[in-house]
Write a structure and sequence with these properties.
Length: about 400
């Protein structure tokens, strides 16, 4: 508005100057008024054009604002949807983080539990191993104590029998002998001394069954050398020339041969019936001098066979009674033992076989032996369905003194 006023004022100045000039001329007043009228019309046109332009500009601005507002209103739902989607995604992300946290916690707990279970299993295995070692040591201690007691009993018995012989020879009792006999000697020994005055002769010890004077098979005491104590064995004096130490005898199946390692090491059964002498005794016997091995078998159909080897030796318990030596075979039962040369003895609770594909033969056949061969599991269960199993099996070692 001020600009227009200034513009009009400027026009008047011009006009006034023109009037002044025209007045000085004397004849230009009319022309000047005509020009002023023209200029006034022009000014009105300009003002009108300015108002029109201002109205157009205002309308344009208002239209722009309306368009912007309409666009904002149109985009508001989309923005709201976008905001809602972002909120949903944030919530989903939060849920995913929580789920991963829970999963990681569960995996960690499961891993810790599995590790704890593994550690517990290791501890249990160590505990079982220690228990087994403890039982083994206890068994060995009991065996040593039992042997010491047996040896002491044998020595005491020999001493008393010697006193009895002296009494017989002199015709008078030695002072104190009767008191010792009554007060210090176990009932079994007293009974044997009182009722078997010649027991000292019948229970003499021999280095082998070949040295025993009797030609009748039966029980005898064996003394391997001067550094050992005697133990009782069954001597077979008829088959194959006699002189055999029987360390395994089966004939009626009344004795269960499905035993553990300790029992096979110590021996079990009755020398007058079915029995197993014991791997420890067998090792002591075969390790001192050369031996032969004789195996006699008979199946349920009555078919008989034998296997004779001119050499035989087994290792100690520390060596798992490995079959160290096996000589040349002859016989009719088949050479099953040769497959076991170098093999360790196996029981159900101590599988020392190196043929894992066959499993635990001792457990499968409910017995024990060196692993291989059709009749080599001679201590397995006797069943009529197994024609290759021995019904009548005697394994005997022949003492070959050097």
């Amino acid at each position: 508005m001020c600009a227009r006023v200034w513009f009009v004022s400027g026009c008047f100045v011009v006009i006034w100057s023109a009037l002044a000039i025209s007045s000085s001329n004397g004849n230009g007043i009319e022309a000047l008024f005509n020009k002023l009228s023209f200029l006034e019309d022009k000014i009105l046109d300009i003002e009108q054009a300015a108002r029109v332009s201002e109205a157009k500009l205002k309308a344009h601005v208002e239209a722009k604002e309306e368009h912007r507002q309409a666009k904002l209103e149109a985009e508001e739902p989309e923005a709201n949807n976008l905001h809602a989607n972002m909120q949903d995604k944030l919530a989903e992300l939060e849920r995913g983080v929580k789920a991963n946290e829970i999963l990681l916690r569960q995996q960690l707990e499961q891993g810790l539990q599995a590790r704890m279970a593994d550690l517990q299993g290791m501890l249990d295995a160590i505990e079982r191993q220690m228990k087994t070692m403890e039982n083994t040591l206890q068994d060995k201690l009991f065996r040593v104590m039992d042997r010491i007691m047996t040896d002491n009993m044998y020595q005491l018995k020999e001493t008393l029998l010697g006193e009895v012989r002296k009494t017989k020879e002199n015709g008078v009792p030695i002072a104190g002998t009767s008191n010792i006999t009554v007060q210090s000697v176990p009932d079994a020994v007293k009974h044997e001394i009182e009722h078997n005055p010649s027991a000292d002769e019948s229970e003499a010890s021999y280095r082998s069954c070949k040295d025993a004077p009797s030609n009748v098979s039966g029980r005898n005491f064996m003394l391997l050398n001067a550094d050992t104590f005697p133990f009782e064995v069954y001597c077979e004096q008829i088959s194959f020339g006699g002189g055999w130490i029987v360390f395994q005898h089966r004939f009626n199946g009344q004795l269960d041969f499905y035993k553990n390692w300790t029992e096979y090491s110590d021996g079990f059964g009755d020398l007058e019936g079915e029995f197993w002498l014991g791997l420890d005794y067998l090792h002591r016997i075969t390790s001192l001098r050369p031996h032969e091995l004789l195996v006699e078998v008979k199946d349920f159909a009555g078919n008989y066979g034998y296997a004779l080897y001119d050499g035989f030796e087994i290792g100690s318990e520390e060596e798992q009674y490995v079959l160290k030596k096996l000589g040349k075979y002859q016989g009719t039962a088949g050479d099953s033992m040769s497959y076991n040369w170098g093999k360790k003895f196996s029981t159900a609770d101590s599988n020392n076989g190196d043929y894992s594909d066959f499993g635990n033969c001792a457990a499968d056949r409910q017995g024990a032996w060196w692993p291989l061969g059709p009749w080599a599991m001679a201590d397995g269960q006797l069943t009529a369905g197994r024609q290759t199993m021995a019904l009548f099996a005697r394994v005997r070692g022949n003492m070959c003194s050097t």
